[in-house]
Records
---
Amino acid sequence: MVAQLGGQPVLILSDKAQRTYGRDAQRSNILAARIIAEIVKSTLGPRGMDKMLVDSIGDVVVTNDGVTILKEMEVEHPAAKMMVEVAKTQEDEVGDGTTTSVVIAGELLKKAEELLDQDVHPTVIAKGYRMAAEKAEEILNSMAVDIDISDDELLKKVASTAMTGKGAEKAKDYLAELVVKAVKAVAEEMNGEISIDADHIKIEKKVGGGIEDTQLIQGVIIDKERVHPGMPRKVKDAKIALINAPIEIEKTEFDAEIRITDPNQLQAFLDEEERMLRDMVEKVKASGANVLFCQKGIDDLAQHFLAKEGIFAVRRVKKSDMEKLSRATGARIVTSIDDLSSDDLGYAGVVEEVKIGDDEMVFVRECRDPKSVSILIRGGSEHITSEVERAIEDCLGVVPAAIRDKKIVPGGGAPEIEVASKLRDYAKTVGGREQLAIEAFADALEVIPRALAENAGLDPIDMLVDLRSRHEKEGPNYGLNVYKGEAVDMLKEGVVEPLRVKTQAIASASEVAVMILRIDDVIAAKGLSKEEAGGEGGEMGGMGGGMPMM
């Protein structure tokens, strides 16, 4: 970049640096963001299509989960990266609605571009969008329906709505029931608030069988096998010890040399090692434990002694699994064998080693009141099990959200149509140029029912007209039934979503749209740290040689 000073050229940026500014920068950013939205738009709804993602070494992912598609894609453009962040935020916050948030953001930018062409200033559009987003949240709250969290049937409907259109759809009722049971098992009430940590629900997947063979274990699955074939394969009424210490002779921390001058001394040395290991096993036995999970290693000789005592043992169990075992069985994790007592033991009805496919796995089941449970996912291929896993993870986001907020909204595009209609009324009361931005926001929200109709092969204009008239005459719960091709009452149909899915999607989409709109200059920067650059979205190192689209 060159500036003139008294006829003298002044070099500010290097010749290779690229700078885009003004309308060009806005157009480039809006185009990049809209392309991201267009990519995932066809995956929306029960009739949405799937994407096949192939990486450089030929690994394939087949999915219609918005956030998975965007995470796996190699996105280069900084504005496009900001759209990916929207999907990640939605996933972290509520687990579902990632495609919705990205598609709304893309449509908001498309409508903003039309206003920019009419010479409406970006800051005016930004202000209008912010006002519209606040009003949209109010409208959503007013149309939300209170639910009783003891109503398992309604929670199952929330879960099966999140699963509709995914690879797991054919078994969605069965899987929804599993998810609701799992979430209810790990829910804990503290000070009148219900806290649910989905990390306490362990998901294991094994290829083989069908989706219907997926099962909920009232306990924990450990992807390990017992350490010695002489140990029992199955232990009933298991008393479980959890030890975070090696059952082997510890090496000294400093270099030590033992000089042996007599063969008897060597034998004494070996006998002492054996006695120490035998003592460790005796301490485990004395506590009354018949099952042992060890976070560290177990010496071969100790394995032999444990097998002789009939104790079922597993070694090198992950720290996270040890914590889950503790929550499921009530056992305390002990860091020294000397401290192990009967009070530290947990209980499970059955601990057994089961062969699933080619692998042995340890099932700890029939725990009394497990605060950690496991779901074992089965499916005919790696792609199917992965897609079922993604569907279940979505459900593990929406069911806790519905339980925490105790509010749901109808699905099928009903909230978007209602909010759009009320925003148009609100725009008339605002006046000024912001009114145009609020009306554009309302039009943008209708992209959701339009996309649902398009993806189902229906006429989007006819469907929108039908939905609007139903909302005016019969109320806010009418959404699009893509199978019948008509507007129906979504609450009666059982197509419902947690309120938070919609409020978060609209809030995230409007924020990123405003942020992209306010950018009028894209300048190649030297390697900024992530914090300085504002996360991944702002990291523009390497843009000097040009800005590839994707």
---
Amino acid sequence: MARINVLDKNVAELIAAGEVIERPASVVKELVENAIDAGASHITVEIRRGGITFMRITDDGSGIAYDDVPRAFLRHATSKVRSGEDLDHIATLGFRGEALASVCAVSRVELLTKTREDDFGTRYCIDGSEETAYEQAGCPDGTSITVRDLFYNVPARLKFLKKDVTEGNAVAGVIDKIALSHPQIAFQFIRDGRSEFRTAGDGRLLSAIYAVMGREVASSLIEVRYTVGDIQVDGYVSKPIFCRSNRNLQVFFVNGRFVRTKTAMVALEEAYRGSVMTGKFPVCVLRIALRTDAVDVNVHPAKIEIRFSDEKEVYNAVFLAVKDALYQRDTVKQIENLQAAPARRLIPVAPPSELTKGEQLPLPQTHLERQIQAQQASPRPPAAHKPETVDLSMNVQKGVPGEKAMETAKTPFLSDMPKAEPSSGASEQPQPKPATTPDTSAMYLSSDGDSLTDEQQPAQAYANVKIIGEAFKTYIIAQINDDLVFIDKHAAHERIIFEQLKQRGEEGDRQILLSPFTLVLAYDEYDALLRSQDTLSRLGFLIEDYGNSTVIVREVPMLLDRFNASEVITEIACNLKNHKNNVTPDVIDEMYHTVACKAAIKANDTTDLVELTELVKRIYASQDIRYCPHGRPVTVTITRQALEKQFKRTL
């Protein structure tokens, strides 16, 4: 049996240092945090060869007294903790008393320090935990510590370091996060003799973000400022349109300390749900302030991992803070007096020259009205009808309307919108002569029959909204005040339907099919669908088992036609199979997405100007309609100033 030995002090120091010092970035983090705790207002970090051969951290903090310098390099020596009770109220970045001891155990260290009360400074050198110099020296107030030849006495650790560029980037990442956490401190980072960045130290977080992350990121941010109980959340988050393909630019601080917290990350991304595209992640710099006894930072020597005493409180605080910022500050520009006259609707008419005296222009029909007329004119199928079969598993569709029928198929629109009602005498009046190229933007007619001239329009509700037309049968072009707005009609309508589905739930309108149809599915999807019939009922579907991996569809949401319903059910079945019938709120939202996408107006659909106008009104009447459920923007705005600048009319 092997004898138990007490390790030599030098060996124990090397082992302990390995827990704190992993790479040059670890050294820089520990020393910069000490400088911050010392009350520095200016900190300069300089490295060479990624920090492997040279690192110097200079600050103008309080410095170290001459007699305390050797003691500072002893393990578990600190000025920040005196008793066990202090561990419950840690307000400093450092507290373990291991940083300097670990650094000097694996490198050559030179320290120059001076307090404001002393007439002279101190020079102290230590190599591999062995003191080599301890003397008085002339130096400015503060501390400058130089670290050379990291891991020179631990070859096993040295060979596992990355290339100089990689290690230098890791150091830069540490300085970036510390500079963001303390915008009141002016940081400068010098790499191989070249200044990488410098922060102003003016206390403004946005200026620090500008210096660290750049202009593009800084210009896309929304301010966050929220308080819930004893928890304060402030900082900046990106607009949903500006998201990244990874989480590298998500930065969280707790009581001034950079941390990795899954609680805050999940709360952030949940607040963006439905506003960002799948696979995209928001950018954030969020500072969370809470009681020191509500967070445990003594979890790991690196002090990046922490624990909250109440995870739910922190989650709610971050979620509400971000949600409030998105709702309050990422808003569409409001139309003046939007609710002043909700019954009025601007309807384009032909120019006056095209109408003879006494003629009235009948209001154009909406898609819904035309479809109702078409259904009334077509004969109804017999009551007893064998269900039609749509075999989507083999990509064969039976009983689906042909091309001609599909061209005139109903495109469901906004169910809550007021519809144009023709006047009682409209049918007896002669029809106007069609204009060769009618100028639909020349005049507007309100829904109560009054003509509005250009001079009268600003006094009316929606008078500063002018529908110019539609591009590529996809994008509505509107002039709103001094802005030119492009609106994706599919994305907008999809979001409207999605919000309606979420609000109505089981109360949503559904239709009983006179001719039920069947769907042939893959066996695993068929099984998943039958085990979730209650979930489908919430969405407005009524299905029954028909045997042999086939289901009968008897009821569908009012928004869907038969063909769209079959596609939606198939996608839902696949979704349920992938989630193993674990119907979480996220899964329900995905189903709502599917229904909304299939029911919404499609690109290239012909949409009359009445519906386009109503759609624009709905967008600007609700702050929820800014992004489609998949995260694509609904509107893109070009200001008049930007447009005139392109034409060189202004500078």
---
Amino acid sequence: MTETAGDTTTAEGRRFPPPPELAAHANVGPEVYEEAARDRLGFWAEAARRLTWTQDWDEVLDWSNPPFAKWFVGGKLNVAYNCVDRHVEDGHGDQVAYHWEGEPGDTRTITYAQLKDEVCKAANALLELGVQAGDRVAIYLPMIPEAVISMLACARIGAVHMVVFGGFSADALASRITDAGAVLVITSDGGYRRGAPSALKPAVDDAVDRTEGVRNVIVVKRTGEEVAWNEGRDLWWDDVVERQSTEHEPESFDAEHPLYIMYTSGTTAKPKGILHTSGGYLTQVAYTHWATFDLKADDDVFWTAADVGWVTGHSYIVYGPLANRATSVMYEGTPETPHRGRWWEIVEKYGVTILYTAPTVIRTFMKWGEDIPAKFDLSSLRVLGSVGEPINPEAWLWYHEHIGGGRCPIVDTWWQTETGAHMITPLPGVTTLKPGSAQRPFPGISAKVVDDEGNELEKDATGLLVLTEPWPSMLRTIWGDDDRYVETYWSRFGTSVYFAGDGAKVDEDGDIWLLGRVDDVMNVSGHRISTTEVESSLVGHATVAEAAVVGASDPTTGQGIVAFVILRGNVTEEEASGDELVQRLRTHVAKDIGPIAKPRQIMVVQELPKTRSGKIMRRLLRDIAENRDLGDVTTLTDSSVMDMIKDKLPAAPSED
């Protein structure tokens, strides 16, 4: 990749040193980087000793057959025991594990002792139904405590859970059940979404009818809606789980025993079943959760505002926080139900101290205006986090000022479903923050930016992000397809170098700025321009709350830049409908980045197509920009958004 002039992603000049009080009492200090660099494997071994092992390991890492890693070889542990039982045995059974908030306003408070009882009962129920260690269990639930209980029950008996996000279609669920070979499905009648019940059981019935091997479907009562019933196969959670004993002796499993499969969506190819195992995964999610968020188990209230159906939920709602004895918040619904201040109401209600969410949500809050969070007491917050995609500097600054009160460090974390845990992130008590940058590899992680031939780039250059050493929470393979695992992740630069698929820039200080997927790098007249760069520039304009940029075929330049923008709430209808604002935005980008980056076309829209995890579906926007038939829209929160955007499509692009 070649660098573009005036790169807006790194142009933000403000710096934010750690708050002195936080730095003085931080879980880790600046020396952690040197310690990890001096003895990388020793560093991870020390992190693993924060857990309880029933059998010590013989070797920290076996990398004799790359890219197939084995961590903590010979070690044994039980993941559920580490997340629940040991805290109860240590006298913390009365500590709250989860403050759960249902969208309609119902609540549940679950202590560690109560969680242990519920997990044991669910584990006993699975055993009664013939589920054995190594069997796969599909979980298709809303954001309710039974989702966490089900995951831990599987981990407790050595079954491999495969959580499918509740927004996925019956087709997506069926393909995952078939690929994983699941023998049991745990679901519910439905959940609540935007103020109304949303059914889940019908999709399960449809999916299971198209698959083989599922013996039972356990159904949690959540909404009370009527559901179809298959006698002999379907069982109510209350009937099969509640009568079980609260006693269950956890079995120890090898560090490399499979813990879960998580499928990444494929736009054209078959979804990939990412396999994570036990010892290395729990080591890294627990340590990164403790260090990245400076978690104080006795004092903090931690909220990852995501869904357990995604890897963010697995690692930082379930396994990381529970391993660290955190008190967490779980919320079932959407940020705007029943009002746009719901999140801030929850922060105030539970005294949330650490909030972790996605840039897409932050930009939505920007669009709604700072007057909404200003109505609530957010003074309990001390650390903020960002996850899911690169955060625009303007969104970072808004988050810092209007949510963090100008006092909370923001940890902008880069990682993936495949990596399992944080890989590049600031540390809140150590790092002087740069808005929009993930900054440095986590201690013990080897991440570099390279050119197309794999040569490491010097400072102030743009290229490809790679990981050059194995890490504990890394994916072990693609379920049932070792060849695809090697080809997808370890073929471009050899079997010892993981290619993340993301572009990145190294600035003059050696800090890393993520530029999004390499697929999202546009080639305009021979210049490589990141969609993230242009989006950051647009969001940096006072009128724009959110932007999505795609490249579209252009007979002259190869690709032309097409932008879709949502305006801030203070922009008048007259301004929004006129061409003058669009021209001002195009000029703004040209001045900010360079004339080559001026969008060919800018469309003002009311909403962008997003999945229910908050990710913008740029693939669909490319379809619109290219005037193609739309691809699959089943994972969108609201598929009607695409019709609204198409209706606004101008007959011809803007002219210079």
